[in-house]
Amino acid sequence: xxxxxxxxxxxxxxxxxxxxxxxxxxxxxxxxxxxxxxxxxxxxxxxxxxxxxxxxxxxxxxxxxxxxxxxxxxxxxxxxxxxxxxxxxxxxxxxxxxxxxxxxxxxxxxxxxxxxxxxxxxxxxxxxxxxxxxxxxxxxxxxxxxxxxxxxxxxxxxxxxxxxxxxxxxxxxxxxxxxxxxxxxxxxxxxxxxxxxxxxxxxxxxxxxxxxxxxxxxxxxxxxxxxxxxxxxxxxxxxxxxxxxxxx
Length: 248
What we know:
It is built from 11 helices and no strands. The protein has 248 residues and is mainly α.
């Protein structure tokens, strides 16, 4: 990979495996972590968005497979959000933000992601509440649009909302979020393609590295895995990346 020296490539690869592992373990694709990592290693903006979407496709599908096998996926929780988010993510994939605007918005999203890892938005499970369809559609559209524009899947935003509103348990939220991330990433990358852009070849070199971490994370996360220390470390890394993006 021409963007990095051999030493930095090794460090980057190890960090990428850890990020994919941790995010997959909680039903996420890991885009916010990948974007933070690429920001720290000064990747060009033109590589960051398509790379994150591409890696999301693979890692979120792996995570969904494991959670689905454990019977945590509830279709009724998924459809209300996906119906609105898929076209919104497609539209967002067309959008090319000014690099300064992109960095600031992404930096703010990463701050949210970091605080989630620190446990600030990890709401406890509530008794099951019936989903309000209009509200779910509006949330799906907003998250999908933001996902397509930034190159994230939206699970980092959706899962705490599901828990806060009492619409899903932790495991159900992870299962729904993983498929939500996959369809949003697919829609976003389709919009990106139809907007006349292509995925850089360097992005594909990252796939097997992320897949390795994703398989491990999905396997252990759908069972009984929990590792708070690594999550705190990852939270600090993402927070540092957000500061670098907002205040270059």
